[in-house]
Design brief:
The chain is α+β, with helices and mostly antiparallel strands. The chain is built from 13 helices and eleven strands. Helix content is about 40%, strand content about 15%. Strand 4 and strand 5 form a beta hairpin. The termini are far apart.
Length: about 300
Amino acid sequence: SFAEKAGVNIYLIGGIVRDLILKNPIKDVDITVEGDAADFALYLEKNSDCKILSVQENLRTAKVEFKSGVIIDFASTREEFYTKGGVLPVAKNFGCELKEDVKRRDFTINTLAISLTGEKYKLIDYFNGYEDIKNKKIRILHKNSFTDDPSRIVRAVKFQKRLNFNIEENTEKLMQEYLQTVDKTIPLERIKNELKQYFCINKSGLYSDIIENNVYKLICKNPVKNVDISLLQDIKNYFDFRYIWFVYFALMVLNDDFEDIRLNFTANEKKILNEVKELKENYPIDINNNMQIYNSFI
């Protein structure tokens, strides 16, 4: 293979392996290179029918398009450490052994790899992720996982919803412990991006799950907790479908002063926040009392 000729080991890793095991549709193909992925992409471009679409120099990753139209993301193995909770990690030791790379991942279900060189198609499982996939468990790798990256809390409920998995007991305990004492200095952009992905899942109960799991505490203090079905139908009809995810977000922050929320809202997002607030204020009944939680927003 090209990898063996280039003298590197390569692996399918993460979500694609999880989805292969679950027999779910494959969306993104991620390959980890035990070496320099950007150099390997250059080798591929020179020796096969493909082209490099982009290279991220600081992380030594490359996006490559093959003649078939398939696009593959190649990433160098690396270690990461956090200088402070919630900030982007610092990458180091590029080209390290696969086991060191896998330690930086969010949940055991995303740590599995399949070897594409050497012992081909061997499943590599350092953290018992296969067992957790079979048992439908979302489990963090170490006790500081949520402190390092609080956006993993949103990711946990996202995978819970998307895969119909359960959050493992100790993981749930650590999650709730963190949510009781949220670090108010953490950057919120990554959390907002994770919430966007979460609110775009086409399933019922998205909003109520965020409230019941206390996930809203990452962003705000006092979300709209009980939402009337007819108000949400009005809101759904009022907004462009592309912005429905942000309508959820607006309901979450509506009772707080969103000028105080440490996020750079776009002009369009500010407009939606104010329009949702107006819709709620003009609604004929008090939606915070004795109202049915609307569980099928999308």
